[in-house]
Write a structure and sequence with these properties.
- By secondary structure, this protein is an alpha/beta fold.
- Helix content is about 55%, strand content about 10%.
- The protein contains eleven helices and seven strands.
- Strands 3-2-1-4-5-6-7 form a seven-stranded parallel sheet, sandwiched between helices.
- The model has no long low-confidence stretch (mean pLDDT about 90).
Length: about 325
């Protein structure tokens, strides 16, 4: 009888821990929205809390561009870091015209490896950086097994998705710690929730981002805020393999909608899906055992692969 009771207690505790973990991202996102309405003076403007400048990588398209625009709308000066100088200048002019803040551009192709970082460090040397948004990322051209993935593409995935977040964070942290404030925002992906067949390397890089972010937070908090942002599908060029995703729907927001919600969570929560609809989806995804998620992910990517192949045939 005593053994049965002990097992029942252990089971109840296990279920409670599981539910709390699954609900946590949803609860954090709800809190981030409600806090300003009930305690409006608690949340300082980002520029006052972290400093006047933000840097955003991958800032000429998609989520990165919209992050930069939203931070500028909230009064932050913005350093734009991306590979196309023409696009950088276009976004820079747009931000300055719309929001009247200062901008600075740094040209960097993150697929080139370590050779680019000295130029970035030189460009940031005199900038009192308050926020770093590690957004730059690269995706598969379309879902494929590892044996079909070109070795050059595998290296690009690692260089852009792993090396960039690690090197840039290491670069800016000493200044933030010396100033006694700052925020590092690491944009990951819902693909971190489980191994993902047909996008194995991409998902593995995002698991790295999550692990790095959680460890880093333990090292530098509370002096520096380290936020983990894990979106699910967003309608951006990264998903060109799927016309369905590019078209968007209530579960797949456009980049502007997503970024406006995600930026609102900065300084309020340290881990978030960034968008309330994604938070709900993440909750239900995490209810399933990992092996189920792997099977569902594999089937989903097989369908995306077939969709891509059909689109290629129609061209």
């Amino acid at each position: 009888m005593l053994g049965f009771i002990c097992l029942a207690v252990i089971g109840a505790i296990t279920v409670a821990v599981f539910l709390i973990d699954s609900l946590w991202s949803v609860l954090e996102l709800i809190t981030s929205y409600l806090t300003p309405y009930f305690i409006p003076t608690e949340v300082l403007p980002l520029s006052k809390r972290f400093g006047p400048w933000a840097a955003v990588t991958g800032s000429t398209d998609g989520i990165g561009k919209e992050y930069a625009l939203e931070l500028a709308r909230l009064g932050m000066n913005v350093v734009l870091i991306s590979r196309s100088e023409d696009k950088l200048r276009t976004v820079s002019r747009e931000i300055e015209k719309l929001h009247g803040v200062k901008t600075k551009i740094i040209v960097a192709d993150f697929s080139k490896g370590t050779e680019i970082y000295q130029n970035i460090e030189n460009g940031l040397k005199d900038v009192p950086l308050g926020i770093l948004v590690n957004n730059v990322g690269v995706q598969y051209e379309y879902p494929m097994p590892l044996v079909e993935l070109p070795v050059s593409k595998a290296w690009e995935l690692i260089s852009v998705n792993v090396v960039a977040v690690t090197t840039l964070t290491r670069m800016v942290l000493p200044g933030m710690l010396a100033r006694g404030r700052g925020a590092v925002v690491n944009v990951s992906s819902g693909s971190e929730l489980q191994p993902l067949p047909l996008m194995a390397v991409y998902a593995a890089t995002k698991s790295y981002v999550r692990s790095l972010t959680l460890a880093l937070r333990a090292e530098v908090s509370p002096t520096v805020t380290v936020q983990h942002v894990s979106p699910l599908f967003v309608s951006t060029k990264m998903n060109t393999f799927s016309p369905t995703l590019l078209a968007g729907n209530p579960l797949v927001p456009d980049a502007r909608t997503y970024a406006r919600h995600a930026v609102r969570t900065l300084g309020r929560v340290t881990a978030t899906s960034g968008y309330w609809v994604h938070g709900v989806q993440s909750f239900f995804i995490k209810l399933a055992p990992e092996w189920v998620r792997i099977k569902v992910g594999a089937q989903m990517n097989r369908e995306f692969r077939e969709e891509h192949m059909r689109a290629i045939k129609r061209q």
